[in-house]
Amino acid sequence: MMSRSLVFALVGALSPLTPLSPLHAQGTAPLGAGSVRPGIEVLLTDSMHLIRGKRVGLLTNHSGRDRKGTSTIDLLFKAPGVKLTALFGPEHGLRGVAQAGEKVASAVDAATGVPIYSLFGDVAVPTPAMLKDVDVLVYDIQDVGARVYTFEWTLADMAAAAGKTVIVLDRPNPIRADRVEGNILDPKFSSLVGRHPVALRYGLTPGELMRYVVGAGLIKADIKVVPMQGYRRSMWFDETGIPRVNPSPNLRTADSELLYPGTVFFEGTSVTEGRGTEDPFTLIGASWMSDAGAIAAELNALKIPGVHFDSTARTIEAGYKFAGQTIPMLKVRVTDRNAVKPVDMGVRMLRAIYARHPKDFTWKVSSIDRLAGTDKLRTAVEQGTV
């Protein structure tokens, strides 16, 4: 296990975030399990004064919707006294179908005629021309509670650059907002997969994270948050009553979202993180990992909380690592989601595979260091100090 003096200690991460904890309950009593109202619904019933009479630019994607499945685009386009003048799309695009890292072009929304400006292509923040008909910006995207997810940092970059009020419509942290795990990002490794110094599993809702980065002086921005109603920090997403939508193309299950803060490390290695299989981030493997059964047994012997490892094989789809090959893999099964510590699990998996295959296991150095927010993870795995 990695030394607490190294990377994956909590580093007191929770303490500066604690004052943000009441955000979800402002002015409301919990509604009970299965009755959480997301920020978009609260905006339309209780907080329309924030956008009434204004020209609105909306940063959203397919996950921005109410509990009935109506998109936030349609809700704001039809809202009385509001003029939706611009749409902004993050990584994966407005419809959430582009693959990770794939550039997305700007376009016009066929249903509304509103221009769509991609913030994951030629530009990363709105230009003055994109904002000329915008009075206020609104954000509504379901995140996954992991620092390496790009949506929140697209929001933070936009808020810092736009010079306009940004209204965040809050949503649940699907892997619980009362769990913090992993290292604090070293600013030397700042990127769109980790812009500011927060923990890898940061234990905040989108609105709370933005309040934190502003309150800590990490960006200068005018942020207003429309909180949820009925949300409790200990909730898993399936306890909120909000229908689940895949937040991005390769996070297809609740288990993959929970494991993601740990298995995402494999993106920065010669091991596949499971893209090109039916359940990425729960399946990890490589063509040279013929001893997957022994690795699974070794990991199970560590009694890593809340998970069990099986050996299996999958044929990888075109366009991904090991495309067209049937390769040995580890399948990570969640046995107790309340016990899982995905970051620690991911570190142990890295070490187990590296130790058996030090020649075949290679790093994409800039990628792994950005994902980890440090170079100490990579060196600790190599040196066996984890």
Provide a short characterization of the protein structure.
Helix content is 24%, strand content 16%. The protein is an alpha/beta fold and 386 residues long.
Describe it.
The protein has 386 residues and is α/β, with parallel strands linked by helices. The protein has two domains: 15-239, Rossmann fold (3-Layer(aba) Sandwich); 254-383, Aspartate Aminotransferase, domain 1 (Alpha-Beta Complex). It is built from ten helices and twelve strands. It has helices at residues 39-46, 72-78, 128-131, 151-162, 206-215, 254-263, 292-301, 342-356, 365-372, 376-383, and strands at 55-60, 83-89, 107-108, 115-118, 136-140, 166-169, 181-184, 199-201, 223-226, 283-285, 307-315, 326-334. Strands 3-4-2-1-5-6-9 form a seven-stranded mixed beta sheet, sandwiched between helices. The protein has a three-stranded antiparallel beta sheet with strand order 10-12-11. α2 links the parallel β1 and β2. α6 (254-263) packs across α8 (342-356). The longest helix has 15 residues, at 342-356. The radius of gyration is 21 Å and the shape is elongated. It starts with 38 loop residues before the first helix and ends with a helix.
